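User: Before I run my own analysis I want an independent prediction to cross-check against. Here's the chain; please return only the structure tokens and, at the end, one sentence I can use as a sanity check.
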Amino acid sequence: MHKWKIGKPVKAVSDELMIKGGLSKLCADVLSARGIGGYDEAAAFFSNSEPSDPFTAQDMDKAAQLITEAVDNMTNICIYGDYDCDGITATAALYSYLECLGANVSFFINERAEGYGLNADNIRKLHERGTELIITVDNGISAIAEADLVYELGMRLIVTDHHQPSEKLPRAEAVVDLHRADDLSRFKDLCGCGLVLKLIAAMEDGDHTAAMEQFSDLAAIATVADVVPLRGENRYIVSAGLHYLENTANIGLKALIEASGMKPPYTSTGLAFTLAPRINAAGRFGSATDAVRLLLTEDEEEAKLLADILCGYNKTRQETEKGIMSEISAAVKADPFIADRRVSVFYGKGWHHGVIGIAAARVMERTGKPTFIISEENGEARGSARAPEGFHVFEALSYCSSVLTKFGGHSGAGGFSLLPEKVGEFTELLQKFAAESCGEINSVSQADKALLPDDLSVEEVGSLSVLEPFGAGNPRPMFLMHGAKINAVQALSEGKHTKLSLDYGGVTVSGLMFGQATDKFGYSAGDMMDMLVYPELNTYNGRTSVNVRINECRKCGVSQQKYFAAKDTYEALRRGEAVSPALMARIAPERAELVKVYKAVKKEFLPFDNIYSAVSDDSMNFCKFMVCIDIFEEKGLIETDRFFMTARLVEGAARVDIETSEILKALRAGKSDIYLAVRGN
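Assistant: Structure tokens:
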């Protein structure tokens, strides 16, 4: 279960946005709940004007002038990009533009094994090929030594990057980074490809028209993929890019859209989950050069071939990710107490470095805990971390720096390296950091407001489209449905997905749960539910209606505050930490409570939370419930999966005397170290 935070619109602001801005009530409430303070701020949010003057960026004039001169002089130019989606699209856009100008231009992108950014060996190779000017895109701001090497070899350098610079900038003819301390740009959150659009506009004497018409489709994909805020100029770029994508002139993009199966109307969600992963997969499982070639080709047969190759890379990525997740699941099954640690740390050999970050995000989403995944290969251990709000990854890595050889990151994510023999010490330091600085951490799910039944009209739901495109900084609106009654449960796609008929304050609406197996849903007709949903319009046979996509649900009446307090106590017990006698007295279950829990468990695996919601009451908190589950598991009556947080009955289990449970006896004796014997400590 995630913690739910429900926003509260400010009525006066919502009223102003409806009256002065002409917005619907639902749309106005969303903006108000997100902190928009009035009409002027809303107008700024919706502003879809031309991006700001590119020449306000420090060194942009120098970069544009030098590149123009290099084109005119047939200087041997090499665009040096990064191997992720942003770097690939930025490389393709700038190369295509310069080639159209008649430039003597090539491109180069490291293979993932060579690491990020300017590479000394590759700089020497470019020199041997006769390169005279290197232009970086989506990298270069931290390449101090490598920049010096460029000049030692007699070449010149222009840096365009959107990452945070250090106090010292690399030696270059121009360093264009909107995060420079002396940069005066109005909007600073562009991705690498977005910055390339600015550079192209600068070469067009400040006019963005050509850049947007030719390359905003690529920049839109990059902007969404790089998870930069969809505000200001990024909102403009993605809106324009989606428009031009409908009739893109890029033959490679057309082929990739067809091969991926993406259908119009195109949305930012489609970019994020369909196109971007396939472009990213090239850098992870093949060569980023394949993706650049796809985006540059003018041959339809080659485009189809390369698009199929990228889709193949993406399939490999999915299979590799699935394999890592399977090994992590097996590790938890082998040692279930791993699931009770404050920070999840998983270590494997040969796990693909291009996927462990994705896997860390998946595990964090499932467990709600900071997750660090480490892979050992060729005697080196490299890791990737993801964390929810309330845990700072970079601070945690800094705390553990004594055992790390390299690390970097920010609050929510990071990367690091260490010697394999230091993994155990690193794990313990992470747990110590979490205990000292954070306590218990749980993921948060945010909703904009609680829905009213009247909000579920075609007009109100349809009005939310004006907030698009959705993404980082402007997420798809999410809402709380409090007290929705399940009228019926229907299996879709042979039970792979679940459809609910809901009664919400007299309004009947369909609720869809994709990926929720019907036999593992655990709720039935008549149950009263709280749900986090986003509503959408559905048109069938010419009739438009509203349904809701259900992201999370729980039974009405579950106290979130009490749930997490009890969960924290339970995990402390499992870790062998001291628990106050007063709490211990409330944890030991009576026989009737044990019977109640046992009867709620089914033959198929169901989530702990679903089972708990069926038995929770004033005396049955989550800690007591999980202790009951542990007692039955100890006696061989119940089987659990601590990675998926599910339980089921053991069929054919022999009858046992539950009073002989060591956990139960220790609890009744008031011992808080009840799990140490079970763990073998």
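Sanity check: The mean pLDDT is 94.
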